[in-house]
Amino acid sequence: EVQLLESGGGLVQPGGSLRLSCAASGFTLRNYAMSWVRQAPGKGLEWVAGISGSGADTYHLDPVKGRLTISRDNSKNTLFLQMDSLRAEDTGIYYCARDLSMNRLLPEHLAYWGQGTLVTVSS
Amino acid sequence: SSELTQDPAVSVALGQTVRITCQGDSLRIYYASWYQQRPGQAPVFVMYGKNNRPSGIPDRFSGSSSGNTASLTITGAQAEDEADYYCNSRDSSGNLLIFGGGTKLTVL
To answer: How far is it, in rounded angstroms, from Cα A119 to Cα A85?
Structure first.
């Protein structure tokens, strides 16, 4: 059974940093592109970043480039999102998601989702 | 970049058919995927490609696409189908993923 478990969220002051993790099980992580998707309170879904199975190719939404960075450690079955210079508008639930098909460079169909971790940026 | 546009809210009588639409230029190039999100829960993948249902999704859900519009149809809507529905696809450059704003489906 595919499982994704996010952790690392919490309350952080503006300008601060957090590192989110997503522990994957039930499949071979290196075979799949992965994504981070966020949802601000009461708002819709927003794709933030994606990464190929090997980690060689990464993609970030323009507003987060240089502040949020996706990475992965396939040997530890874990996906990461390093969050720096955080702003109030980064507040929300952050989900990790696995692509449907193997060996894509960029995620396309987000077939499996974790339960999310809440990030609150506030002073 | 590009956008996907969805109606904010749609309602359907119990047992009737409802179509939820998603419009955007990128849909002329890429198929949409669809996700169902019930309150307080993570999204669930319900449709992709031309008309493909992931395992476990009831066959009352179907998909279609024409021009710049993708549609998710629920034939014989049930109370448990009441949720927010989001479409997504790659953007026109093919380098990013984009989501529609979501449609809140109410089953009356």
So the answer is: 13
Beta-carbon contacts below 8 Å between A and B: 63
User: If contacts are CB pairs under 8 Å, which of residues 34-73 in chain B contact chain A?
Assistant: 35, 37, 42-45, 48-49, 54
Average pLDDT taken over every residue of chain A: 96
Which two tokens mark A67? 């502040």
Spatial contact of B98 and B35, defined as CB atoms under 8 Å apart: no
CA distance B46 to B56: 9
Q: pLDDT grade, residue A45 (50/70/90)?
A: very high
Q: How confident is the model at residue A103, as a pLDDT?
A: 86
d(CA A94, CA B3): 21
Mean pLDDT, rounded, for B44-67: 96
Measured between beta carbons, the chain A residues lying within 8 angstroms of B42 are: 95, 113-116
Chain A residues in contact with B95 by the CB 8 A cut-off are 59, 106
Residue A82's pLDDT is: 98
Asked if B68 and B87 touch (Cβ cutoff 8 Å), the reply is no
